[in-house]
Write a structure and sequence with these properties.
By secondary structure, the protein is α+β, with helices and mostly antiparallel strands. The protein has 4 helices and 4 strands; from the N terminus they run ββααββαα. The two termini are 20 Å apart.
């Protein structure tokens, strides 16, 4: 079993997905997560509804925050664009997750 760098779950269509917020945190990016994701999704030419979906999160007193459920392929693209050691580790991790999911060796929790 692979060590979990970033939590991978399945969406209602059975696709493996990750949180953009968790990827942002892992990559240690200092930009605002929404600004960062918008820029990354444009650079990677990701399609809303295909490569990611926006998910509103409950407010803890302020404005509700938004996270993005992104496919493993999209997460891999973003990781490659970020470069560096963390980007490489994330990219290799997502490649391994895809291999395991395709061979049904790892049960990915359903969200």
């Amino acid at each position: 079993m692979i060590n979990e760098l970033i939590k991978v779950t399945k969406d209602d269509r059975g696709r493996a997905i990750v949180s953009a917020r968790e990827l942002h945190l892992f990559l240690e990016n200092t930009d605002n997560v929404n600004t960062w994701f918008k820029r990354q999704s444009e650079r990677a030419m990701l399609e809303d509804g295909t490569d990611f979906i926006a998910i509103s999160q409950e407010s803890t007193g302020g404005r509700p925050s938004v996270d993005y459920a992104i496919t493993l392929s999209a997460a891999k693209e973003i990781s490659m664009l970020n470069g560096g050691e963390k980007g490489k580790r994330a990219r290799l991790y997502f490649i391994e997750c895809e291999k395991k999911a395709q061979s049904n060796q790892v049960a990915i929790p359903q969200t």
